[in-house]
Inverse folding.
Protein backbone atom coordinates (compact mmCIF):
# COMPACT_ATOMS: atom_id res chain seq x y z
CA UNK A 1 0.00 0.00 0.00
CA UNK A 2 2.82 2.32 0.90
CA UNK A 3 4.40 1.72 -2.53
CA UNK A 4 1.15 2.66 -4.30
CA UNK A 5 0.95 5.91 -2.30
CA UNK A 6 4.56 6.80 -3.21
CA UNK A 7 3.89 6.22 -6.91
CA UNK A 8 0.79 8.42 -6.80
CA UNK A 9 2.73 11.13 -4.96
CA UNK A 10 5.58 11.02 -7.53
CA UNK A 11 3.10 11.18 -10.41
CA UNK A 12 1.45 14.22 -8.85
CA UNK A 13 4.78 16.01 -8.47
CA UNK A 14 5.68 15.34 -12.12
CA UNK A 15 2.35 16.84 -13.24
CA UNK A 16 3.02 19.87 -11.05
CA UNK A 17 6.49 20.43 -12.53
CA UNK A 18 5.14 20.04 -16.06
CA UNK A 19 2.58 22.73 -15.41
CA UNK A 20 5.40 25.18 -14.57
CA UNK A 21 7.77 24.08 -17.33
CA UNK A 22 8.03 26.46 -20.30
CA UNK A 23 7.67 24.88 -23.72
CA UNK A 24 10.91 24.85 -25.78
CA UNK A 25 9.28 26.95 -28.49
CA UNK A 26 7.69 29.46 -26.06
CA UNK A 27 8.22 32.96 -27.45
CA UNK A 28 8.88 34.29 -23.96
CA UNK A 29 11.85 31.92 -23.45
CA UNK A 30 14.84 33.76 -22.01
CA UNK A 31 17.27 31.53 -23.94
CA UNK A 32 17.98 33.19 -27.28
CA UNK A 33 19.40 31.29 -30.22
CA UNK A 34 22.15 32.88 -32.29
CA UNK A 35 20.64 34.82 -35.16
CA UNK A 36 21.03 33.17 -38.54
CA UNK A 37 24.02 34.42 -40.53
CA UNK A 38 23.14 36.86 -43.23
CA UNK A 39 25.23 35.91 -46.27
CA UNK A 40 24.45 39.25 -47.85
CA UNK A 41 25.89 41.06 -44.82
CA UNK A 42 29.07 38.99 -45.04
CA UNK A 43 29.37 39.85 -48.72
CA UNK A 44 28.95 43.52 -47.84
CA UNK A 45 31.86 43.30 -45.38
CA UNK A 46 34.07 41.66 -48.02
CA UNK A 47 33.03 44.21 -50.62
CA UNK A 48 33.77 47.04 -48.20
CA UNK A 49 37.26 45.68 -47.50
CA UNK A 50 37.97 45.27 -51.21
CA UNK A 51 36.65 48.76 -51.92
CA UNK A 52 38.81 50.21 -49.16
CA UNK A 53 41.90 48.49 -50.59
CA UNK A 54 41.03 49.71 -54.07
CA UNK A 55 40.68 53.27 -52.80
CA UNK A 56 44.10 53.02 -51.15
CA UNK A 57 45.66 51.80 -54.40
CA UNK A 58 43.98 54.57 -56.36
CA UNK A 59 45.23 57.18 -53.93
CA UNK A 60 48.73 55.70 -54.06
CA UNK A 61 48.64 55.77 -57.84
CA UNK A 62 47.73 59.46 -57.77
CA UNK A 63 50.70 60.28 -55.51
CA UNK A 64 53.10 58.23 -57.62
CA UNK A 65 51.90 59.95 -60.77
CA UNK A 66 52.36 63.37 -59.20
CA UNK A 67 55.93 62.57 -58.21
CA UNK A 68 56.65 60.94 -61.58
CA UNK A 69 55.37 63.97 -63.45
CA UNK A 70 57.79 66.04 -61.37
CA UNK A 71 60.65 63.89 -62.70
CA UNK A 72 61.14 61.41 -59.85
CA UNK A 73 62.48 58.25 -61.54
CA UNK A 74 61.81 56.13 -58.46
CA UNK A 75 58.10 56.89 -58.82
CA UNK A 76 58.29 56.20 -62.55
CA UNK A 77 59.83 52.81 -61.75
CA UNK A 78 57.12 52.01 -59.20
CA UNK A 79 54.41 52.81 -61.73
CA UNK A 80 56.15 50.83 -64.46
CA UNK A 81 56.62 47.79 -62.23
CA UNK A 82 53.04 47.86 -60.94
CA UNK A 83 51.49 48.31 -64.37
CA UNK A 84 53.65 45.66 -66.05
CA UNK A 85 53.28 43.02 -63.33
CA UNK A 86 49.81 43.77 -61.99
CA UNK A 87 51.28 43.99 -58.50
CA UNK A 88 49.23 46.62 -56.69
CA UNK A 89 47.61 48.06 -59.82
CA UNK A 90 45.73 46.52 -62.77
CA UNK A 91 48.03 45.49 -65.62
CA UNK A 92 48.39 48.26 -68.16
CA UNK A 93 51.09 47.49 -70.70
CA UNK A 94 50.96 50.87 -72.40
CA UNK A 95 51.26 52.89 -69.19
CA UNK A 96 53.92 50.54 -67.84
CA UNK A 97 56.08 50.85 -70.93
CA UNK A 98 55.57 54.61 -71.02
CA UNK A 99 56.88 55.11 -67.49
CA UNK A 100 59.68 52.58 -67.87
CA UNK A 101 60.93 54.34 -70.99
CA UNK A 102 60.66 57.77 -69.39
CA UNK A 103 62.73 56.58 -66.45
CA UNK A 104 65.31 54.92 -68.72
CA UNK A 105 65.53 58.07 -70.84
CA UNK A 106 66.20 59.96 -67.59
CA UNK A 107 69.25 57.67 -67.11
CA UNK A 108 67.87 55.58 -64.25
CA UNK A 109 69.99 52.41 -64.24
CA UNK A 110 67.28 50.14 -62.86
CA UNK A 111 64.91 51.21 -65.62
CA UNK A 112 67.59 50.88 -68.29
CA UNK A 113 68.42 47.29 -67.32
CA UNK A 114 64.76 46.30 -66.84
CA UNK A 115 63.79 47.77 -70.20
CA UNK A 116 66.75 46.03 -71.85
CA UNK A 117 65.83 42.59 -70.51
CA UNK A 118 62.14 42.99 -71.32
CA UNK A 119 62.95 43.97 -74.90
CA UNK A 120 65.51 41.17 -75.30
CA UNK A 121 63.12 38.51 -74.02
CA UNK A 122 59.76 39.97 -75.08
CA UNK A 123 58.62 39.92 -71.46
CA UNK A 124 55.29 41.82 -71.44
CA UNK A 125 56.77 44.30 -73.93
CA UNK A 126 57.11 43.51 -77.63
CA UNK A 127 60.37 41.71 -78.34
CA UNK A 128 63.06 43.89 -79.87
CA UNK A 129 66.55 42.35 -79.41
CA UNK A 130 68.35 45.16 -81.22
CA UNK A 131 66.90 47.89 -79.03
CA UNK A 132 67.27 45.70 -75.95
CA UNK A 133 70.98 45.26 -76.61
CA UNK A 134 71.32 49.01 -77.10
CA UNK A 135 69.91 49.70 -73.63
CA UNK A 136 71.95 46.89 -72.05
CA UNK A 137 75.19 48.18 -73.52
CA UNK A 138 74.33 51.65 -72.22
CA UNK A 139 74.14 50.24 -68.69
CA UNK A 140 77.35 48.26 -69.21
CA UNK A 141 79.17 51.44 -70.20
CA UNK A 142 78.18 52.84 -66.81
CA UNK A 143 79.66 49.78 -65.08
CA UNK A 144 76.35 48.55 -63.72
CA UNK A 145 77.29 45.19 -62.20
CA UNK A 146 74.04 43.42 -63.05
CA UNK A 147 74.09 44.68 -66.65
CA UNK A 148 77.70 43.54 -67.10
CA UNK A 149 76.81 40.10 -65.74
CA UNK A 150 73.68 39.81 -67.91
CA UNK A 151 75.60 40.73 -71.06
CA UNK A 152 78.41 38.32 -70.17
CA UNK A 153 76.02 35.44 -69.47
CA UNK A 154 74.04 35.99 -72.66
CA UNK A 155 77.16 36.20 -74.82
CA UNK A 156 78.56 33.02 -73.27
CA UNK A 157 75.35 31.04 -73.75
CA UNK A 158 74.00 32.76 -76.87
CA UNK A 159 70.80 33.60 -75.04
CA UNK A 160 68.90 36.14 -77.15
CA UNK A 161 71.99 37.22 -79.08
CA UNK A 162 74.83 35.86 -81.20
CA UNK A 163 77.08 33.67 -79.08
CA UNK A 164 80.59 34.88 -78.33
CA UNK A 165 81.93 32.84 -75.42
CA UNK A 166 85.29 34.60 -75.22
CA UNK A 167 83.72 38.06 -75.06
CA UNK A 168 81.11 36.78 -72.64
CA UNK A 169 83.79 35.39 -70.32
CA UNK A 170 85.50 38.77 -70.34
CA UNK A 171 82.32 40.49 -69.16
CA UNK A 172 81.59 37.79 -66.58
CA UNK A 173 85.09 38.16 -65.17
CA UNK A 174 84.69 41.94 -65.10
CA UNK A 175 81.46 41.60 -63.15
CA UNK A 176 83.01 39.07 -60.75
CA UNK A 177 86.50 40.53 -60.30
CA UNK A 178 86.01 44.27 -60.58
CA UNK A 179 82.39 44.74 -59.55
CA UNK A 180 81.98 41.92 -57.01
CA UNK A 181 78.75 40.64 -58.58
CA UNK A 182 77.95 37.38 -56.79
CA UNK A 183 75.78 35.77 -59.47
CA UNK A 184 78.56 36.39 -62.00
CA UNK A 185 80.98 34.59 -59.67
CA UNK A 186 78.61 31.65 -59.40
CA UNK A 187 77.97 31.40 -63.16
CA UNK A 188 81.66 31.72 -63.97
CA UNK A 189 82.51 29.04 -61.43
CA UNK A 190 79.96 26.55 -62.75
CA UNK A 191 80.91 27.12 -66.39
CA UNK A 192 84.60 26.56 -65.60
CA UNK A 193 84.08 23.48 -63.41
CA UNK A 194 81.81 21.79 -65.94
CA UNK A 195 83.66 22.97 -69.02
CA UNK A 196 80.31 24.13 -70.34
CA UNK A 197 80.58 26.96 -72.88
CA UNK A 198 84.02 27.87 -71.47
CA UNK A 199 87.27 25.91 -71.45
CA UNK A 200 87.32 23.64 -68.42
CA UNK A 201 89.37 24.90 -65.47
CA UNK A 202 88.29 23.14 -62.28
CA UNK A 203 90.64 24.99 -59.94
CA UNK A 204 89.56 28.42 -61.15
CA UNK A 205 85.92 27.34 -61.19
CA UNK A 206 86.10 26.09 -57.62
CA UNK A 207 87.60 29.39 -56.56
CA UNK A 208 84.75 31.46 -58.00
CA UNK A 209 81.92 29.18 -56.92
CA UNK A 210 83.24 28.98 -53.35
CA UNK A 211 83.83 32.74 -53.28
CA UNK A 212 80.16 33.34 -54.16
CA UNK A 213 79.06 30.75 -51.59
CA UNK A 214 81.27 32.28 -48.88
CA UNK A 215 79.64 35.65 -49.61
CA UNK A 216 76.18 34.19 -48.97
CA UNK A 217 74.79 33.81 -52.49
CA UNK A 218 72.17 31.13 -51.81
CA UNK A 219 72.27 29.32 -55.15
CA UNK A 220 76.07 29.29 -55.04
CA UNK A 221 75.92 27.83 -51.52
CA UNK A 222 73.62 25.07 -52.77
CA UNK A 223 75.72 24.35 -55.86
CA UNK A 224 78.98 24.34 -53.87
CA UNK A 225 77.49 21.95 -51.32
CA UNK A 226 76.16 19.69 -54.06
CA UNK A 227 79.51 19.80 -55.83
CA UNK A 228 81.34 18.69 -52.69
CA UNK A 229 78.84 15.87 -52.09
CA UNK A 230 78.46 14.44 -55.59
CA UNK A 231 79.90 16.84 -58.13
CA UNK A 232 78.07 18.98 -60.68
CA UNK A 233 76.10 17.15 -63.34
Amino acid sequence: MTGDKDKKKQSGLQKLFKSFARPANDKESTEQEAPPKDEHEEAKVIDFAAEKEKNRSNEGEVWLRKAAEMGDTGSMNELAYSYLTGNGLPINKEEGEKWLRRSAEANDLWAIVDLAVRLLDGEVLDKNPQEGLHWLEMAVQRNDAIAVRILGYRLVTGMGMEQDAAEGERFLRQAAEELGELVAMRCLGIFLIKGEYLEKNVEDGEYWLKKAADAGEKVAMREWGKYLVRGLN
